[in-house]
Amino acid sequence: MKIEFTKMQGAGNDYIYVNTLIYPIQHPEACAIAWSRPHTGIGSDGLVLIGSSDKADFSMRIFNADGSEAKMCGNASRCIGKYVYEYGLTDKTEITLDTLSGVKTLRLQVEDGKVGAVTVDMGIPSEIHPVSLGESAPYREGIAVSMGNPHLVIFVDDMEKVDLPVVGLLLEHHPLFPDRVNVEFAQVLAPGKIRMRVWERGSGITMACGTGACATAVAAAYTARCPNESDVVMDGGTLHIRWMGEGDHLFMTGPAVKVFDGTIEENE
């Protein structure tokens, strides 16, 4: 079966998007692995399925490059907003999206019929607390944050000294996190400006992570390193995060960009 897809990216976090209302995917885990490979597939951080929902305008399922299913992705949710509007699935500029971490609200910034940026209500961050990683870990402590998926934020003085391929993999599999964890390294450049790099659970190093940027801004505000609004600068781009404190919703604003359309067979 030939399947039409769209490759999109948000701050460099790139996924393959399929409208399952037209093209149902029978084996998403296997497709995510095969299609995400950079040399023999399309090349991406994973596969995103857009579907129907009985509780929201659309649903989102995300499969990482290793085939594991993720609960939430901020960058992917923004790209879905652009996709459903520009491909005529809706004419609304405020959209609800059913995810494994709850229903999210997307507010689209539209100009001349094109979506440039999207603000996502990411819900209420939870489980925010310091974590002691132990003396055998490459870093001794961090801040745990849940954005519907688990994050470990570690603040450093010099991002250039972080050996991300090595320490990211080690910390993803730290015994404190039996279901693995997304790992963010953060350097505060100025009040309200944070440099961040990410090792994503199931994908490894990526150009950006929306929920990771949110978790980083939360950890920075929680530890009084930054105010309640921050620009999080990642390898692929910058996201603006606003969070007024514990118990409040967090809002993330950033770009959504179409890369190209294509066709592929599910068994390839």
Poorly predicted runs of 5 or more residues: none
Mean pLDDT: 96
Basic shape: globular
Order of helices and strands: EEHEEEHEEEEEEHEEEHEEEE
What does this protein look like?
- With 268 residues, the chain is an alpha+beta fold.
- 16% of the residues lie in helices and 46% in strands.
- The chain contains 4 helices and 18 strands.
- It has helices spanning 28-36, 74-86, 164-172, 210-222, and strands spanning 2-10, 13-19, 46-51, 58-64, 69-70, 94-99, 102-111, 114-121, 126-132, 141-146, 150-155, 182-190, 193-200, 204-206, 229-234, 237-243, 250-255, 257-265.
- It has an 18-stranded mixed sheet that branches.
- The chain is globular and about 50 Å long.
- The model has no long low-confidence stretch (mean pLDDT 96).
Primary descriptors:
268 residues, alpha+beta, 18-stranded mixed beta sheet
What does the secondary structure layout of this molecule look like, with pairings?
Layout: E1 2-10, E2 13-19, H1 28-36, E3 46-51, E4 58-64, E5 69-70, H2 74-86, E6 94-99, E7 102-111, E8 114-121, E9 126-132, E10 141-146, E11 150-155, H3 164-172, E12 182-190, E13 193-200, E14 204-206, H4 210-222, E15 229-234, E16 237-243, E17 250-255, E18 257-265
Parallel strand pairs: 2-3, 4-6, 11-12, 13-15
Antiparallel strand pairs: 1-2, 1-18, 3-4, 4-5, 6-7, 7-8, 8-17, 9-10, 10-11, 12-13, 13-14, 15-16, 16-17
Brief sketch in words of this structure:
By secondary structure, the chain is an alpha+beta fold. Helices cover 16% and strands 46% of the residues. The chain has helices spanning 28-36, 74-86, 164-172, 210-222; strands at residues 2-10, 13-19, 46-51, 58-64, 69-70, 94-99, 102-111, 114-121, 126-132, 141-146, 150-155, 182-190, 193-200, 204-206, 229-234, 237-243, 250-255, 257-265.
